[in-house]
Hints:
Blueprint: H1 5-17, H2 26-50, H3 56-63, H4 66-77, H5 84-108, H6 111-140, H7 142-164, H8 167-170, H9 175-203, H10 205-211, H11 214-227, H12 233-250
Amino acid sequence: MLFALPLFALLGLRQRLRGPGPQLSWRERWALLGMGLLGYYLSSLLDFWGLEYVPVSLERLILFLNPTFVLLIGLLFLGQRVSRRQWAAVAVSYTGIALVLVENLRVEGSHVLFGSALVLGAAISYALYLAISGQLIQRLGTARLVVAAMSISTAAVFTHYLLARELETLLSWPAEAYLWALANAFFCTFLPVTFTLAAVRRVGPGTTAQMSVIGPVSLVFLGAWLLDEAITPLQLAGTAVVLGAVWLLTRPAPQPGPIDAPPKLG
């Protein structure tokens, strides 16, 4: 986060040179603070904590539920309507997750439940982040919102670190660790955050969440390839069920065909 902060600062400076941003109300400022704490502080914290207890394949699959959470948040808090097809997709999603969770309990043990609950909290936190960003991005624009939210997240992460660890520990890692952190800051933090909020502005938080499942799909198989995690037939079946639900959720609704004009008399 500290390596990524200068990149966001440069982005903010570029926007500042283009002119001052809009004045936010107190309600919008509190929403921005909540967005910064939810997205890349709380969500990341719960996700990495959960990974201590569950395999990457299950963690990614739980994150597949992100679009359903965005959908439910829109229903409960933003007055959005949910179609029958969307409700069906939600039901199918949770059926697939249940299949994989039962299989992981058999293979991995009972600690999977605790880890799954942590990852579930991460998914809900990130869904709230996307929902709030959809409300603020029209006021601030992509770049300003990215800079503000990530500055808040970085401050929260660094404060947490100072409360939990000694500052000297941060400076004691080998050079390779800092190179990996630098690569993570650019490729896994700066670019994804900027692209995600740019997508929210163009297609909305719901569609952005739905398209983000491409990442979790790849991780199911990368976990087996790079981390030697076992993938059983039941896990593959559950993954297929969840992917089917996401396809059902993202498939455009059929449009009614043109109405034929009545034949002319005479």
